[in-house]
């Protein structure tokens, strides 16, 4: 850790913008003196030995510097009479009314004996936090800590920290949630690849394969609302950790269950759905407590892009593992990764900033934004929640959104093969493209949404703009899809449809935390239940439509639902808090 000190302007430090020439006029000298009286230096000192090596700065239980550090720190840095000088790095923040002189400066030594230190070229230093900070107010030498800007007082830097230590604690939570969603979809999509050699080995019919694939949704539907209730009552950390461990164990048990018999496999797949069903409500709960509204869209977009990249990873690595080690290896390899994530989650995550002993007070104030910390939910006001038009806008819009999304992602390989005449290998490779497109555009949309909020656009308008893009973009490109005549243009329309669809992460997927942060888990559970039902019914309805009609009819139904969702969302949604 570095020792921070507040120093008044003196001969030891000379501003790089003030006159240093001995031939300056008296008026310039008096003017410079007046300027120096209004300036304050905030300096951070990294003690070193005579060879310039940084000494070890250990602290005792009382938080005091070790005797070795005290020996060098207490020596006066700029006294020319010292026979042995401390070789240290000093970083100074000049607080001045003049914006041209305010900022970070790095001093350097001058060989002249009358001035040991002089400020060289200005250089901005990004503050690097450590767990124990020696703040300026603890070692004040002159002036009052209140005179120093908060950013300067907190930037007691020095030393080199890993990127993990420098990452704000709230973004550590976001990164861990990202990897949990990456694992979520890796474990989900591996069955779509492994089912081919499994059905050949066990002699399953197409009807049996469909039954196995659908068994996942039995458990997934069951825990959407329950997961939200548990997260709002017991905290997102506990529920999300439980979910990852549960579905990881179920993934690793899949090969054993398959060899025992079909009923065992169906139960294990349903159990896996139970674990993954709590993931989204629990994540929504924990981010509602950790992320301020100005960063909400970016954080959620990053987490949801983990799902998209998880699908890409699963589809890319599953064929390789199956060809090299057999189909059971996919479930063992992917399932075991959950234990690594859970160890990091237990060590680094907390359900809220108030429970985290490592978070700084500045970051906690930034997250809370002046709001008080409320107790966990003890009961769910169902009548109040269901009486709000904005809640029903979420539920209906989620249904309309997922109808089109699930159809495209489920039936896309068939469309490529039957309509565009791609072979199965080409179809599989092209199925990865929409997931990559969604991962990229979800984060672009999150950045745009947070930028608009920062510029003063109301949260309500931002959510309506982003979700309108998420609805009307796919509607436009699916309409064009029925008009194109070349496979290349068809693939481009499909990718653009999914790319614009990803803007929904900054629309309806962020809105649960806007309207009711305390009930964010329950709200997402409600709307995502409708979304999962849309996927189940939409996938089945598409098969029926194709028997009686064509792909143009499939796309027309999706376009109609996208337009309905756009109208409902823009009329009834809001970005204001309506549930306390």
TrEMBL record:
Can you tell which superkingdom this protein's organism belongs to?
Answer: Eukaryota
Stated name of the protein: Uncharacterized protein
| Organism name | Avena sativa (Oat)
């Amino acid at each position: 850790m570095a020792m921070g000190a507040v120093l008044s302007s003196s001969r030891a430090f000379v501003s790089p913008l003030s006159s240093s020439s001995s031939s300056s006029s008296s008026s310039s000298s008096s003017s410079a003196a007046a300027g120096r009286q209004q300036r304050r230096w905030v300096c951070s000192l990294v003690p070193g030995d005579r060879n310039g090596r940084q000494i070890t700065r250990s602290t005792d239980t009382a938080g005091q510097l070790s005797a070795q550090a005290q020996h060098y720190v207490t020596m006066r840095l700029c006294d020319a009479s010292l026979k042995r000088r401390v070789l240290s790095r000093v970083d100074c923040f000049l607080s001045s009314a003049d914006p041209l002189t305010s900022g970070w400066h790095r001093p350097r030594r001058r060989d002249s004996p009358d001035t040991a230190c002089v400020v060289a070229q200005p250089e901005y230093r990004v503050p690097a936090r450590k767990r124990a900070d020696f703040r300026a107010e603890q070692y004040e030498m002159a002036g009052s800590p209140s005179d120093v800007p908060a950013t300067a007082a907190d930037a007691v830097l020095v030393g080199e920290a890993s990127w993990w230590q420098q990452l704000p604690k709230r973004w550590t939570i976001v990164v861990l949630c990202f990897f949990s969603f990456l694992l979520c979809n890796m474990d989900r999509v591996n069955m779509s690849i492994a089912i081919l050699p499994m059905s050949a080995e066990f002699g399953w019919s197409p009807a049996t394969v469909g039954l196995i694939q659908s068994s996942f949704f039995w458990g997934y539907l069951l825990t959407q609302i329950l997961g939200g209730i548990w997260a709002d009552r017991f905290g997102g950390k506990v529920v999300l950790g439980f979910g990852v461990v549960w579905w990881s164990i179920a993934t690793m048990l899949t090969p054993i269950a398959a060899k025992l018999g079909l009923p065992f496999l169906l139960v294990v797949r349903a159990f896996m759905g139970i674990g993954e069903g709590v993931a989204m409500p629990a994540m929504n709960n924990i981010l509602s407590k950790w992320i301020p509204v100005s960063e909400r869209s970016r954080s959620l977009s990053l987490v949801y892009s983990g799902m998209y990249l998880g699908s890409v990873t699963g589809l890319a690595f599953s064929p390789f593992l199956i060809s090299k080690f057999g189909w059971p290896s996919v479930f063992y390899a992917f399932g075991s990764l959950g234990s690594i994530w859970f160890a990091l989650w237990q060590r680094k995550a907390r359900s809220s900033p108030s429970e985290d002993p490592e978070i700084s007070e500045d970051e906690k104030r930034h997250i809370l934004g002046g709001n008080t910390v409320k107790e966990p939910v003890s009961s769910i006001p169902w009548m109040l929640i269901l009486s709000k038009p904005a809640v029903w806008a979420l539920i209906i819009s989620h249904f309309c959104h997922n109808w089109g999304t699930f159809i495209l992602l489920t039936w896309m390989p068939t469309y490529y093969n039957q309509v565009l005449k791609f072979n199965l290998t080409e179809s599989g490779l092209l199925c990865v493209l929409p997931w990559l497109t969604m991962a990229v555009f979800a984060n672009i949309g999150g950045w745009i949404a947070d930028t608009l909020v920062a510029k003063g656009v109301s949260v309500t308008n931002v959510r309506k703009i982003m979700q309108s893009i998420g609805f009307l973009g796919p509607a436009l490109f699916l309409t064009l899809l029925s008009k194109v005549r070349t496979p290349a243009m068809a693939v481009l329309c499909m990718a653009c449809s999914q790319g614009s669809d990803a803007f929904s992460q900054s629309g309806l997927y962020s809105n649960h935390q806007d309207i009711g942060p305390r009930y964010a888990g329950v709200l997402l559970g409600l709307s995502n239940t409708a979304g999962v039902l849309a996927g189940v019914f939409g996938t089945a309805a598409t098969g029926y439509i194709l028997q009686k009609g064509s792909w143009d009819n499939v796309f027309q139904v999706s376009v109609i639902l996208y337009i309905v969702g756009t109208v409902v969302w823009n009329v009834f949604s809001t970005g204001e808090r309506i549930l306390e």
